[in-house]
Amino acid sequence: MSVAVNNAPSLSVGIVLLHRFTLLPFAAFVDCLRLAADEGDRSRPLRAQWVFMTPHGEPVASSCGAVISACQPFQPPARFDYLVVIGGVQEDKAALEAATSAYLREADHAGIPLVGLCTGVFALIQAGLMKGRRCCVSWYHYHEMAKRFPTAEPVADKLFIDDGDRITCAGGPPLRIWRRF
What is the pLDDT along the chain (181 residues), one digit of tens a residue? Predict the structure, then answer.
């Protein structure tokens, strides 16, 4: 558990928040990251840093109405060790925003591992980044995913699936990231 040379955090995580993202997966992931990044529970980003992002840096409302306003516009993917997509409510079947889809493909092209939390995996599928891969999905969304994306390989009996440069998690924080500490 060492801090990178010159005291820069050794892990950088970009967090893409989709419209009406689910608050519990977001809070669980960010709080675990916050605790792992520090010593002594002082909320210092000693070992990791993270950025909340939306296409243009605009605030984004969660599914319960809580708003995250500390968002930045999409940053160059190479800046991050992981890019985490936290999905939203699936009630409106609108396509993924073109700018978000393009950004996820850019990150894939740059070799950045992509993480789909909760329905964030739907965004990875819509961006064409889950072909031939199993993906973890909540039992609640299993049938919807199978119907909307017949070529997807949804798995609902696991907490997460680690497929190398793709990690999907039905709702809580994926564990592989914490192994770096």
Answer: 334 445 667 899 999 999 999 998 999 999 989 988 888 878 788 888 999 999 999 999 999 999 999 899 999 999 999 999 998 887 655 567 899 999 999 999 999 999 999 989 999 999 999 998 999 888 888 888 888 888 888 888 888 899 889 999 987 544 444 454 4
Query: Can you name the residues that pair with 83 across neighbouring β-strands?
Result: 14, 114
Kindly give the residue spans of alpha helices, DSSP state H, lying in the chain: 23-36, 98-109, 120-126, 139-148
Q: Which segments within 29-156 are labelled E, that is strand?
A: 48-53, 60-61, 67-68, 71-72, 82-86, 114-117, 134-136, 153-155
CATH class of the region 5-180: alpha beta
Distance CA 84, CA 113 (A): 9
